[in-house]
Structure formats: C-alpha cells, structure tokens
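Reopening: C-type lectin domain family 1 member B still failing for me.
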Amino acid sequence: MQDEDGYVALNIKTRRSAFTSADPVSSLWRVMAFVLLILCTGMVVGLVALRIMSVTQQNLLQAENENLSGTLQRILRSAGNTECHKCSPCDKNWRYYGDSCYGFFKHNLTWEESKQYCSGVNATLPKIASQNILEYIKARTGLIRWVGLSRQNSNGVWMWEDGSVGSVFSKNMPELPGDGRENMNCAYFHNGKIHPSFCKNKHYLICERKAGMAKVDKLL
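Support: Ran it again with your exact input. Result attached.
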C-alpha cells in the first residue's frame, strides 16, 4: 500500500513461532508412564529372582532329604533292622530286607494267580538269588509259598520272573535241576528248600518289590 509521500507501507504480521512449548499435561503423563514402566520392570525382575531362589531352595532341601534317607537306609541295612515301622522304606505289613520289601500273604492261589496278585500290588513273586535271602525267608515263614521260579515245560530251563536262569544251591534246592517231573513247572519254597510243583496247585505266596527311600519325615 502506498502512502501520500509515495512510500510503500509494509503490513507485517507477527507469526507464531514454529517451536511452541509442549503441553504441560502431556509432559506429566510421559513422566508418569516412564516411572510406571520402571516400577513394572523392577517387579518382574524381583518375581523372577524370587522364583529362582525358591526353586533352588526346594532342590537343596530335596537333595538333603534324599541324602539323609540314603544314610538311614544304609544304617538300617547294616543293622539288619526290618521291624522299625517308623523308619522302614516298606509299606505297613511288608518286611524290609536287603534292597527289597517282602509281603507274606496267606492267600491260597495257583502260581499264575499268585503272580497276578503280586503284580496288582506293584511287586513280583520273589527271586531267591542268594543264600542270605534264602535264609531270611526260611526264618520268616515255615509255610509252603510260591516263588518266582518256573519253566516252560518238563525239559525246559528253570528261570526267575526277570528272565535270569534259576540259581541252584546244591544243599537247599536238590530237587530242581534236571528232575524231569512231568508238568511240574512251577516252584514253591518250604523249610529252606525250593521244590517243583504243578502250577495249578494252590499255595500261599510271597511278593517282593524294590524298597523305596527311607522316609525321614516319619521320624519327626
């Protein structure tokens, strides 16, 4: 626009600065969000650390308990203590000897029925693999009882339930090796000796299962 003197008057308008100050409310929310993020991260790290410590502590306690149980079991085995119900690794009415628990049952069953009965209680008919076991069972019972020894036929090999060949003690098992008795393919124990018998005969039985760990908490 030109004035009376011929000069051009410039109409200059003040422009708002391109860089305006930030909204104070928005800045406050950013700070709060950042603080919350730090707090949440700290909580997560703390929970993970507590979990690791808890698992580690549980593992240490379990290992210590197993060590104590193993020590107690070795003491019981060396002392020959089979009647201590509080510290025995066997269930009630089972007897602890060596590394096994033995159940002496007065059920009049065939050999196959006896095998199935033992299987039902997570056990097997016993394997008399040493003179010590034979003497132990002899001292525990004077009754005729099935054991886990059998053969497929009269000319077959006597074998224990785990598939191993039946060990024969000449003075305690005189009737088993090569007796050739027709169809007498199962064995029972009586008075310190093992005898062949018809599998359909009915006798009492013994069950054997692996002993667990001695339970330390039962002593507390």
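The mean pLDDT is 78. If you still see a failure, please send the error message rather than a screenshot.
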